[in-house]
Every structure is written in C-alpha cells, then in structure tokens.
Write a structure and sequence with these properties.
By secondary structure, the chain is α/β, with parallel strands linked by helices. It is built from 16 helices and 15 strands. The protein is globular.
Length: 467
C-alpha cells in the first residue's frame, strides 16, 4: 500500500529529484498542512522502495529534514513530522509580517455593524427560550429558502437546516450519510478542507478534472456510471480554485446521471454569489433534481467571522440530519442567526459590495502580475481567486521561495491528490488592493529567486510553526 507521504509527493513528480529537492517537497507538504505534526512517516527502507530510490538517498532526505527540525527521529524507531522550535514572541512577530494567501476571504460587509444592532431586539425576544436551535430559526430558514426560490429552485423552509458554516454543514451531511470505505467523486482540484472531510469520513477519492475552461462532463458522467460512487462533491459556481462555472445543461445531465446510479450529489454553493461580471446566472444545481444536497454559508458574502451556514435537502434527509446532529452539537448560535436574518433582507446590497471588492482585488492582482514574466492570469469573472498558470511545474519551488520572502502561498498540489498541478497556483482576489500589491511584489521576488536558481533556505523559520 502506498504511504500518505508518497501519495502527496506523487512518485511521477519526484522521479530523478535529488535528496535536497525531495526534502524541500516534503517540507512544503508539512508547511501547508498536508502532513500533520506527529504523523508517522515511512521508514528509510520503505520510502526507498516506494520511490524506487537508493536507501542512501532517503537517509539523506530524512537527515536534511531532521537538521531543519521538520522531523523527529528515534534511533531504531519511527520518523515523525515535526516543526522547528521557536519562541512565542518570534512567532507573533513573524505572523504580523507575513502576508497569508492561504485564506481567500474578505473583511466584513459595511452593513454588518448596523445589522448587528438591528438584530438585538430579535435576540432579546428569544431570551425566554432554551437558546438551543437544532433546525435553525424559522425566519432565517425562510430567508434562505426564499433566496433559492429567487434563483430558480423551489424550496420550503422545512428543507433548510441552519449550521455553523458550510464546512460544518458538509461534515453533518457526511456523518449522516455515513458509508466508510465507499467512493466519492471529487473535482481535481478542489477545496482542500472538503477533500480532507471526505477522507476523515472514510471515503476513497475518485478525482475528475476541472480547469479554467470547466469540467470534462463526459468524464464526470462516465465515472458516475462506471464506479457508482456513494457521494459526489461539486463546486459548480465560481469553482474553488479554478473560477469555472458549470452550465445549466451540464448540471441537468450530471444530476440525472447521479440520480439514476444512486449517487448523493453534494453541491457547495459557498461561492455562488461572488459574481463580478460573468454575464449570466445559472440555476441552482438543486433545480435539476430534488435529491441534490446543497451546502452554503454567509462567510464569503458577509464575513468569515459570521459562522452561519445551511443545508438544503429533501425532507426525508432533513429528518435524518436532525437525528444525527445532536451527536456533535445542539444547534447554531442565536445571535449570528439574528444578524443573518437582517443581512439577508438586503441581498442586493451584499452582492453589490462583494462585486465591487472582488473587482478591485482582481485588478490589483492583474497589475501586480504585470511585473512577472511568464505567469498567465486567466479571465476571472468572479469567485475568490484566480488560478495562475506558471508555465512550468514549479509551484512548490515558488511556494517555498515565497515563504522566505514573507508570503504564505499554497502550491497547486495543495488543491489536488497525488502531487499534481505543479504548474498552477491560487492567488486570492479578496485582499485590499494595497495589501495585494505588497503580496505581488513578494511573489515577484520569489519568482526571481526560483529562476535565478537562488531559493534561500532560512536558517531559522519561526513562522513555520503557525502554518
């Protein structure tokens, strides 16, 4: 069986790599969270067999990682993932100086404060209740259902469950469907934490390719027909990270195929309202099949700190979700729900603000990339980020060089399985323009380091401990 380390490295991507290059790639896996602190790594002999390399090479790889503090070794025992030691003060100082492009999220909408003030009488009226809200406040569920209806998917409030964010919603769905060992169709690339949630719930991944041009619809339907996966996780609107949008005709065919083979389609609509200038509006995936399960949230249109999400499902599954939910939580905070009710009463204001901010962010990224030869930015009509083509498989090298320049930049393989997508990197368009300009300047310096063959290895890397 292939180890997790080699799965992430992608044997085809490290063929012929030197010990130093292998150590750098493993360091990148640790720094962006694909390998966790304390995780046991293969022995030197096992790693050599998996990679078809000499024992002396893998010994050298672990020696280099050990010297930098990225593994801990017990003589005659195991090798485990670690992080370099650093004082709390130095971590905090470095954290403030770093620009983090691993988080694609904007600051709060200008209306958040006023909505919070307006929500307080509503909250006060709930003081006489238990304070627990397993299903969610009726008024909020109706507001979410109304938005589905406005977009073309008939929905009642009793088809909605309010959750503490979209990832919380996804985990509740997976816990309810519960089929360890089953297969899951997943886009490649995709949102990393969703893939990790599927892995946590015991699913085996069936990747289907997505690029800036969109989906290979035939690959999706053929995979559904051939492998009959238990679930399919899709991001059809402003796909994260490519920015692609799935047309209505493809949604209809995929939904029909999934229904015919018994696959539960889980659609992530977290990015569905992030339109800048796409020029057309698809119908929700749920409009094409009553069995489609949709998760969404307020985090991208209002604020990441507003932990409000939802699930839209048929009534039979809603009953199962409510039965399963008390095993790990008893509901969603009432204050956040009251604020969300106020915000959803003026969706045009929310979407107008989002479009304006994203347009400024997109323009700032484009301007910054003007000074970096060889990087291609695709059309980005909306979404959280742009999916850059670096022109060569150097994403991990650029990511490592960027850290030494004070920039946290997840490499393309962070969004995939098997170490692929080394030509790609995701750049958020969500930061303020001035912060984006600083980030692009640091990226330019890292780019120059890589192409000059001068990728500095920091003697002490205190910021690594906060990744």
């Amino acid at each position: 069986m292939t180890s997790r380390l080699v799965e992430h490295l992608g044997p085809q991507n490290v063929a012929g790599a030197t010990a130093v290059e292998l150590a750098d790639r493993i360091r990148a896996l640790i720094l962006d969270g694909r390998l966790t602190v304390g995780e046991r790594l293969p022995s030197e002999r096992a790693l050599a067999l998996e990679l078809h390399r000499s024992r002396s090479t893998t010994t050298r790889v672990y020696d280099l990682l050990d010297q930098d503090g990225y593994v801990s070794r017990v003589h005659g025992g195991s090798t485990r993932v670690a992080l370099p030691h650093a004082s709390s003060a130095s971590i905090e100082a470095d954290d403030e100086s770093m620009i983090d492009l691993s988080i694609a999220s904007m600051d709060s909408t200008p209306g958040l404060y006023d909505a919070t003030v307006r929500s307080l009488p509503r909250l006060a009226a709930l003081r006489g209740t238990s304070g627990y809200s397993l299903r969610g406040l009726p008024e909020l569920r109706e507001a979410v259902a109304r938005r589905f209806r406005e977009r073309g998917a008939p929905t009642d409030a009793d088809q909605i469950v309010i959750t503490s964010g979209a990832l919380n919603a996804l985990n509740l769905v997976l816990a309810t469907l519960g089929r360890r060992g089953e297969r899951a169709l997943v886009e490649q690339p995709t949102f990393p934490h969703a893939r990790e949630a599927l892995h946590h719930h015991g699913y085996r991944m069936l990747p289907t390719p997505v690029d800036i041009e969109g989906w290979d619809e035939r690959h999706v339907t053929d995979t559904l027909l051939r492998d009959r996966p238990h679930v399919a996780y899709l991001i059809p609107d402003f796909h994260n990270p490519t920015g692609a949008t799935l047309p209505d005709s493809s949604r209809a065919r995929i939904a029909t195929t999934a229904r015919n083979v018994g696959t539960h389609v889980i659609v992530d609509e977290t990015t569905s309202e992030l339109d800048i200038d796409r020029g057309w509006s698809p119908r929700p995936f749920a409009a094409f099949s009553p069995e489609v399960i949709t998760v969404g949230s307020m985090s991208k249109i209002a604020w990441g700190g507003l932990r409000i999400g939802w699930i839209r499902a048929d009534r039979a599954l809603v009953a199962r979700l409510l039965a399963a939910r008390p095993t790990f939580e008893l509901g969603t905070a009432l204050l956040e729900q009251c604020i969300a009710i106020e915000l959803l009463q003026d969706m045009p204001a929310l979407t107008t603000h989002v479009a304006s901010r994203l347009r400024l962010g997109r323009d700032a990224v484009a301007a910054g990339l003007g000074g970096i030869d060889g990087v291609e930015m695709p059309p980005t009509p909306g979404g959280l980020s742009t999916w850059l083509d670096l022109g060569a498989p150097i994403s991990t090298a650029v990511s490592l060089a960027a850290r030494d320049r004070g920039l946290v930049l997840p490499p393309g393989p962070r969004f995939a399985t098997g170490g692929v997508l080394e030509r790609r990197v995701r750049i958020p368009i969500t930061l303020p323009p001035e912060r984006t300009a600083q980030a692009m300047e640091r990226l330019r310096l890292a780019w120059d380091d890589v192409h000059a063959g001068d990728t500095p290895r920091t003697e002490e890397i205190p910021h690594a401990a906060v990744i």
